[in-house]
Amino acid sequence: MEIKENILNAVNEWLTPTFDAATQQAVKELIAGSPKELEESFYKDLEFGTGGMRGVMGVGNNRINKYTLGKSTQGLSDYLLKTFPNQPIKAAIAYDCRHDSDTLAKVVADVFSANGIEVFLFSELRPTPELSFAVKHLGCQCGIVLTASHNPPEYNGYKVYWEDGGQIVPPQDGAIIDGIEKLNFDQIKFDANEALIHYIGKEVDAAFIKSSIENASFNTPTAAKENLNIVFTSLHGTSITLVPDTLAQAGYTNVNIVPEQAVPNGDFPTVKSPNPEEPEALAMATALADKINADIVIGTDPDCDRLGVAVRNNEGQMTLLNGNQTMILMTAFLLEKWKNAGKINGKQFVGSTIVSTPMMMELATSYDVECKIGLTGFKWIAKMINDFPEQEFIGGGEESFGYMVGDAVRDKDAVAATLLICEVAAQAKAKGSTVYKELLQLYVDHGFYKEYLVSITKKGIEGLQEINQMMIDLRENPLKEISGQRVIIVEDYQSSIAKNLLDGSESTMDLPKSNVLIYYTEDGSKICARPSGTEPKIKFYISVNTFLDSVDDFKEVDAILDQKIKNIITAMQLN
Prior knowledge:
Layout: H1 5-13, H2 21-33, H3 35-42, E1 48-49, E2 52-56, H4 66-83, E3 90-95, H5 101-114, E4 118-122, H6 128-137, E5 142-146, E6 155-162, H7 172-182, E7 197-200, H8 202-216, H9 222-227, E8 230-233, H10 243-250, E9 255-257, H11 283-292, E10 296-300, E11 307-312, E12 318-320, H12 323-340, E13 348-353, H13 359-366, E14 370-374, H14 378-387, E15 392-398, E16 402-405, H15 414-430, H16 435-446, E17 448-457, H17 460-476, E18 481-482, E19 485-492, E20 497-500, E21 506-508, E22 517-521, E23 526-531, E24 537-546, H18 554-571
Parallel strand pairs: 3-4, 3-5, 4-7, 8-9, 8-10, 13-14, 13-15
Antiparallel strand pairs: 1-2, 2-6, 5-6, 10-11, 11-12, 15-16, 17-24, 18-19, 19-20, 19-22, 20-21, 22-23, 23-24
Helix pairs in contact: 4-5, 4-7, 6-8, 8-10, 8-15, 10-15, 12-13, 12-15, 12-16
């Protein structure tokens, strides 16, 4: 197999004394026995996406390892020293259950400390939202968490947070990336100053749990809490360190943990994927729920920023809610509580994203609360809080099973969200209702919106080219009709132009540029195409809607919307 010049140059660099003997040996083994893997490992530099840097672990500049993370941390250190001159700089670091997360976290700590930056490193694995909290709680200028969220076991990643507790956003991310790209691997300072590295744990846990309970508790009677029968699974991840304690301190005593999934394990041995968006991931939890007649199932992903929720439908069967549904339920609950407390005065807002359900807008409008819409990723919701300090943030979420309650944590937070959905469920049960019935009533009150995600995986170099071509085709030759419905507006977030296909008029969209296209049809359907920033996937987000006159009509209307989604998938050849 012929090796391209850019790949050969990168490979040769990794065979120099800048890299340790074990790394050089691993590269030699790829050369000898795995030419395809060699190409995948070296053909490009691992990039920052919407969720930071995430990739397969291994040797090479397109892999997660001590050198790629060391280089990123060196570049970040340089940026910090330039941004905060002549003052002490502090960084917090957390890590999840992934293979090598603990050792990679120590590498990151070493590089920071070698640059004179004081480090607060969690002594054991912790949920990602606690890192966001710790940055503000400890007065740090930045934070790092080593995680690959719900990706397969061979992945790891690196997320960068700023002093507000939110992930980095433009222009900071661009400036940091520019600095990283200008560095050579031999410029990384790996020699730690151990005196600058402090290990943290229980004291931050206590403050985080206290904050979570303050933000996500709403005067639920003790009897109602004790009467809620909960099944919880951490899916072998970090949430086991905090969620059970948070629920217990909040007064939820009837919590049944799935024992087979309670031990953190980067191999995720009981699931195909540790992703609570997938029903299979919660199969053991729902089986336990049926065995003990539980009211609700909650499962979190490995780094505990997303949560999946299953509740009993009107026939008593456990049903997995999607991320849009849990977001609507929790937002409606928060809005009602704020309204009843007399706290809504026109200065509040909720947050959502361009790929999430339009029902968030309808819901917020009904309470005279603004709904701000940002790009995909919670860093944009965190930025809303920074950009509008005169307004109060109530809560917000996105379709991918993430939610943020209040602004103590500036990222999706499955700790507080788990407590909040238990509050929703406990109060519903106490008044003779259910979470499911509450959702159907919201559809009657605000319109029945139904969403579906089509995710197409295209791995490797060829896969990336295929994904790019799909976006080019959709952009340069926009569909005029989808499933018999005329396309009336196409929003192109890469050009920041929204075009009306009926009259040819154009308008400018005031959001940062992103490789996203959204089609709107004349019947109110919305189809969004977006390549993932962290995975080899292109995602199509489909939203359809209609009126629901009565809860009794739900099944019939649901079937109509379901067929409409299937027709769109067929028309766009996404199946």
